[in-house]
């Protein structure tokens, strides 16, 4: 993606030694007595830590009262870290307002959809739209920027923390006011809003802006466009907070890069990061794995998408875990090799920093059972030894730093608005999961050993020979035109059920589904036919569909039926179609096939699109390949050792021709034109 507005893109942390991978963690020294700090920095040096994120939750310690400031401890730890060669990504410390502020101004607290106050006691209890919160947050930001503007340890600014992690949706009166302002800017007139929201339905016409509310809890299904706009607004409101802190930082420290940690992971969907990426000097992401058979595929998917949000440029892995989490129902510890594999998979997809939450595992507080680089057991522990080994591995890979990720020939399109909208209530099925469908296609690519990028929908699509757009539900006219142009120019588009159904206002494209893509696909659907949990359907290519089917009619003779549903032993309606358009094509998959079924279908579609694996046949599916500049990363997806002697290249670090179970090998290959260091 070409970031649009940001003239500063891409500034990197002011690291004196650019040619290294950063390694570190969130560091919370305020949780510990002073003598521990000395032990910390010594152990950091042992582990090879060269950066920490400091001060993320330190507001109450830095500013214990409205007009009382205490920087002494922070000065001391900044100096200590610098003396040990450790750079600081300094937080603006605004993530968790202190008790004096919420007592003085309870009106900064968020309100849920039922009108209930979200009380302090945890963190992130603030309204993104509260002018009072903004005032205090910017005062703190300025105080920190002025204090540390010339500190040699300061390498980057970390705005707030995981904006929207715990406070993405606020339904307060402040939110209502800001929502109305946002709607005025979007629509200009109430007439336009009434049309977009289809307010003639259920007597919802507005005659005054003041009548409009956030989608608070109502008797039954809320207006869907109101819901969609509130999601857009909520993402924008937090982005506005990022911008506000950023402008103070740019004013006081114009040479220091600014970022905030995104949450491109699992089912975290509130913020449209495709729209945020250009707001930061370098993209930073936090990632925690979702347990299950696709856990590592999901990690790779998220890292891949993060890289493409960053336009293929290097980015920062700001947080992940050395082992178990504490916020899932069951927090499974990582097995041998898993931490390094997870970290290096992020590096494979462009991360130039490998950081964790957190440096030293807390002895008290809500996260005391969350793993860390230095666990409760201390330095004499498997985790700390694995951390130290990882530090050494990252030093061996130093030459990779700064290389850009090499795009592949195929891509999966990712669209936050389709994610939000396709999963709204009052739909044909509430079982549909947008990101799961996208992930299933990604797993199918991995199974076939084909590299595929995961790209935001506004990325340049023409560079890809094969483009999979799963559940691309929201297709405004301009996007339909882009996709038609892509296919007309020889691209091979694949899309699925519930795609092309609505425009940007969530209004259905009429005259048969999938309205916006109907002619391109050469099909017409009169009715969706979702399946109950007990139902599944067989296809005549041997695959099995669940969740959804469509009653597809083929309308264009150029549309070939690749698979049909079997109905009572008979071959029935089309299930998978493909319309040839010049040298391009547009294919449609009308049911959920899951990773196994999609692997079968994708093998065929990829072959027809002329896309093949770059891996030797015996490694396909067993190894994930990611490419940065001249470096091939081979990631063992299996629990078995694999012979990689038939892959060309010189292995970095100590390594043989055997790829250990869950191991990652980095091979330097002949330089590929245009992909060398930035
Ligand atoms: C992140 C957060 C960290 C820590 C971590 C635990 O969401 O930024 O502060 O809570 O999760 O996994």
User: Which ions, cofactors or small ligands are bound in this entry?
Assistant: beta-D-galactopyranose
Secondary structure class reads: alpha/beta
Rg over C-alpha atoms, rounded to the nearest angstrom: 26 Å
Overall mean pLDDT: 95
Silhouette: globular
How far apart lie the N and C ends? 17 Å
Q: Major sheet: order of its strands? A: 5-4-3-2-1-9-8-7-6
Helix content range: 25-40%
The low-confidence runs, each spanning 5 or more residues with pLDDT under 50, are: 1-9, 673-678
| Total E-strand runs | 26
Largest sheet: 9 strands, parallel
Number of helices: 17
**Strand percentage, roughly?**
15-25%
Summarize the structure.
This protein has 678 residues and is of the alpha/beta class.
């Amino acid at each position: 993606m070409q970031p649009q507005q940001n003239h500063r893109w891409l500034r990197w942390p002011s690291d004196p030694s650019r040619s290294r991978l950063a390694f570190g963690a969130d560091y919370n020294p305020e949780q510990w007595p002073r003598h521990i700090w000395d032990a910390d920095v010594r152990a950091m040096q042992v582990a090879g830590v060269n950066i920490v994120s400091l001060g993320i939750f330190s507001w109450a310690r830095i500013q214990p009262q409205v007009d009382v400031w205490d920087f002494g401890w922070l000065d001391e730890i900044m100096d200590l870290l610098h003396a040990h060669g450790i750079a600081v990504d300094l937080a603006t410390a605004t993530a968790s307002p202190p008790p004096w502020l919420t007592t003085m101004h309870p009106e900064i607290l968020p309100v849920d959809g039922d009108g209930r106050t979200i009380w302090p006691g945890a963190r992130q209890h603030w309204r993104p739209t509260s002018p009072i919160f903004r005032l205090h947050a910017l005062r703190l930001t300025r105080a920190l920027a002025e204090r540390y503007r010339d500190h040699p340890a300061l390498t980057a600014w970390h705005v707030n923390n995981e904006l929207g992690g715990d406070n993405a949706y606020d339904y307060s009166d402040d939110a209502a006011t800001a929502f109305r302002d946002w709607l005025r800017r979007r629509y200009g007139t109430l007439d336009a809003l009434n049309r977009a929201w289809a307010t003639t339905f259920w007597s919802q016409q507005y005659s005054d802006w003041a009548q409009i509310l956030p989608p608070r809890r109502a008797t039954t299904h809320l207006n869907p466009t109101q819901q969609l706009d509130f999601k857009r607004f909520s993402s924008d409101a937090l982005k506005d907070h990022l911008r506000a802190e950023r402008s103070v930082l740019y004013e006081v420290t114009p040479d220091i890069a600014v970022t905030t940690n995104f949450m491109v992971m699992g089912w975290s969907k509130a913020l449209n990061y495709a729209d945020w990426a250009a707001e930061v000097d370098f993209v930073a992401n936090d990632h925690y794995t979702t347990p299950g058979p696709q856990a590592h595929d999901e990690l790779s998917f998220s890292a891949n998408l993060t890289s493409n949000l960053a336009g293929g440029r290097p980015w920062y892995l700001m947080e992940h875990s050395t082992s178990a989490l504490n916020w899932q129902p069951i927090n499974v510890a990582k097995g041998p090799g898993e931490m390094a594999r997870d970290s290096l998979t992020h590096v494979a997809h462009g991360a130039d920093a490998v950081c964790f939450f957190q440096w030293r595992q807390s002895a008290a507080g809500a996260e005391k059972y969350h793993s860390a680089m230095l666990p409760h057991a201390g330095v004499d522990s498997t985790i700390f030894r694995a951390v130290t080994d990882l530090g050494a591995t990252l030093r061996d890979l130093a030459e990779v730093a700064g290389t850009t990720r090499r795009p592949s020939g195929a891509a999966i399109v990712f669209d936050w608005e389709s994610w939000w909208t396709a999963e709204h209530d009052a739909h044909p099925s509430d079982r549909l999961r947008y990101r799961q469908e996208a992930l299933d296609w990604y797993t199918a690519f991995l199974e076939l050993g084909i590299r595929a990028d995961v790209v935001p929908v506004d990325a340049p699509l023409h560079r890809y020979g094969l483009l999979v757009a799963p559940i691309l539900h929201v297709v405004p006219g301009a996007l339909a035109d882009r996709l038609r142009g892509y296919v007309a120019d020889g691209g091979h588009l694949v899309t699925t059920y519930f795609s092309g159904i609505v425009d940007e206002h969530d209004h259905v494209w009429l005259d048969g589904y999938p309205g916006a893509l109907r002619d391109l696909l050469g099909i017409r659907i009169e009715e969706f036919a979702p399946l109950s949990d007990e139902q599944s359907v067989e296809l005549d290519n041997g695959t099995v569909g669940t969740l959804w089917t469509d009653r597809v009619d083929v309308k264009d003779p150029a549309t070939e039926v690749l698979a049909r549903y079997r109905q009572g032993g008979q071959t029935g309606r089309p299930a998978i179609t493909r319309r040839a358009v010049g040298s391009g094509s547009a294919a449609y998959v009308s049911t959920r096939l899951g990773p196994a079924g999609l692997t079968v279908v994708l093998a065929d579609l990829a072959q027809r699109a002329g896309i093949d694996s770059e891996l030797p046949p015996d490694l396909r599916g067993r190894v994930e390949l990611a490419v940065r500049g001249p470096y091939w990363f081979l990631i063992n997806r299996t629990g078995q050792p694999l012979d990689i002697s038939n892959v060309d290249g010189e292995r970095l670090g100590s390594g043989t021709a055997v790829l250990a179970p869950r191991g990652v090998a980095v091979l330097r290959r002949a330089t590929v034109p245009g992909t060398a260091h930035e």
